[in-house]
Amino acid sequence: MKVRAAAVAVWVAVGLGGAVLDANAEGDAKRGKVLAYTCHGCHGVPDYKNAFPNYSVPKLGGQNAQYLLTALNGYANGDRPHPTMHSQAAVLSDQERADIAAYLQANVAQPNKEVVGTPPPATQACVSCHGTDGAKTIGPEYPILAGQYPDYIVHALQDYKSGKRKNPIMAGIVAGVDAKDFEAIAEFFGRQRGLCTTDELRKHDKCIRDRE
Fold it and tell me: How many domains does the chain have?
């Protein structure tokens, strides 16, 4: 599988942000599988938590590759602040980041046949970009939310609300959402069929749940 690493003009994310990668680069998933060993140390450990603040390390398996590319570049150049991720991404070349993103994309989450549960009203602020179930995004530069850890989504929304995460689109969206609704939003998207851990991806080369 090869993924076109197209340039992304805006950052749109719950959880990750990024910068632009060389539009001519292509990701090689086979090579990315070898390079992604460093990702498994955190993203492949069940129930692994980021410390201070404490929240679940996000699932990456099945995520849109173009979104992952912008994230890795943002961590590498410092636009997306996180010491551990910066140290990991900064030592990778553009091509290596493209390869890892292609591998992690695996089988992109398919839309749910039926939405699980009743969407809380506040999700209307999210669905125009991320899809009604968080799995079918309007473009590959937008992250899949379906199946993501709820506490991670809450953490990301809080950072956008406070301004810690700099993104004009997300800033405008969360400005109109009450912080008390973040948990309900996160729980809804977390219950949907979607992303998997890199440990599952390493074992099966795909997100098994997405193929059921």
Answer: 1
